[in-house]
Amino acid sequence: MMRLRYSPTSPFVRKVSVCALELELDTLIERIPTNPWDPASDIAVDNPLGRVPALTLDDGTLLYDSPVICEYLDSLAGSGRLFPVASVARWTALRRQALADGLLDTAITVFIEQVRRPQGLRWADWVEFQQTAVTRTLDALEGEAELLEIGAPTIGEIAIACALDWLVFRGVRPDWREQRPRLAAWHGEICQRPAFVVTVPREPS
After folding, report:
1. Domain GST N-terminal: where (predicted)?
2. In CATH, what class is 2-77?
């Protein structure tokens, strides 16, 4: 059985979990709770970057991080459903995943600066710069929202939906739906899929 190092708050872990559920591979994965912020964590054994997700295959092979793991799962299912084979569809899906992951990287920077960094060390201009990038990305997604899939999502749509939920979960941009009606409508529909319903981000109990 494969072993997944995970945190219930990580949007990148959620992306992997949604893919596994969509591909009906979730029963083949043992989930190992991991707090990558804990100095005592042994996550570096599975990922030298000290990040989740990290997947250990049956033969001991280590895979990280989420783009690699998600594509591996799609190859294991043999469907090419989440990572299309056709060139135009493939590059569109990969571009959207890259945009969503970049949105998360930027938003996580804001979260760390505003929440985890001591008050006296916070850099307001840096936060504003990053928030501007978040706004640009959200506006770009609004511009192509009507082209996003709901019934047969690719890795692009999965990554975008996970990123948008995390913005609200961590309070980085809880108002992103305002003035973005098409993106909000799409997000509301895709998040009704069972794979999203059961993976809603939450704080560890």
Report:
1. 1-81
2. alpha beta
